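Summary of Year 1 activities. Much of the first year was spent building the evaluation harness for sequence design. The harness presents a backbone, in tokenized form, and records the residue chosen at every position. We chose the following record to illustrate the format because it has been used consistently in internal testing since the harness was completed.
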């Protein structure tokens, strides 16, 4: 029912294009969480479950 549904594909594309993105360097901590440092000015918190998907320095 949901496979190959053009409306769902369109919605997914719209959500993907509207999602804010940032590029930077991942800094891990010993406690399992980390931060994405962007341009040396701003940083974003990364919770432990999401840190399992990246590595320090990515």
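For this record, the design step produced the sequence shown next.
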């Amino acid at each position: 029912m949901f496979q190959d549904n053009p409306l769902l594909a369109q919605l997914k594309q719209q959500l993907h294009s509207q999602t804010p993105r940032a590029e930077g360097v991942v800094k891990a901590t010993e406690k399992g969480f980390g931060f994405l440092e962007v341009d040396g000015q701003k940083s974003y918190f990364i919770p432990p479950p999401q840190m399992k998907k990246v590595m320090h320095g990515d």
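The helical segments are 6-18, 48-51. Quantitative recovery figures across the full test set are reported in Table 2.
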